[in-house]
Amino acid sequence: MKSTKILLPLIAILMMLIATPASSQVASVNLVSQYKLTVDTVTNTGTKYLELPASFSGRSYSKTAFITFKADKISGTVGGTAQLEVSANGTDYAPVGTAFTLTDVATQVTPLLTVSTGWYGYKARIKVTGTGTMSAKIYGAAVFKN
């Protein structure tokens, strides 16, 4: 089960890249914390955000988008949620889909969004909220294909 959670997003990204004709453009990017780092730490009941960097926020139309989330346990009993949010203006964010529930395992990876009907330059972020007494490193990544 654990290896399946890790492999599924990787397989999906590879399939998107393999199926891409030479004329198509593929762009991948790591989401960043408020400090512009590609990793952050959520602790106890705190909330952290991972966002598309400024160079990707508001980008033009892409045919497909794929956004993933990863959490690595540091200590305690990991729990909480990771919720993808999008915004047209960068101020008012709304949740998209169902929040991913964090569980007490060493590493967990999940796709939060797969869009094949078009991505119109929305600003996106992952809102991560912990529960109880815990600490986990958090990461996010996105792939866009025209």
Structural features, described:
- There is one protein chain.
- By secondary structure, the protein is mostly beta strands.
- The protein has one domain (2-145): Jelly Rolls (Sandwich), CATH 2.60.120.680.
- Helix content is 12%, strand content 47%.
- The protein is built from one helix and ten strands, in the order H-E-E-E-E-E-E-E-E-E-E.
- Strands 1, 2, 4, 8 and 10 form a five-stranded antiparallel beta sheet that branches. Strands 3, 5, 6, 7 and 9 form a five-stranded antiparallel beta sheet that branches.
Task: Give a short overview.
This protein is mostly beta strands and 146 residues long. Helix content is 12%, strand content 47%. The strands form two sheets. Strands 1, 2, 4, 8 and 10 form a five-stranded antiparallel beta sheet that branches. Strands 3, 5, 6, 7 and 9 form a five-stranded antiparallel beta sheet that branches.
Give short descriptive properties of this protein.
single chain, mainly beta, Jelly Rolls, five-stranded antiparallel beta sheet
For the record, the count of structural domains works out to 1
Our Rg estimate from Cα atoms comes to 15 Å
Number of strands: 10
Query: What global shape is seen?
Result: elongated
Q: How do the helices and strands follow one another from N- to C-terminus?
A: HEEEEEEEEEE
Helix share, percent: 10-25%
CATH topology annotation: Jelly Rolls
Average pLDDT for all residues = 82
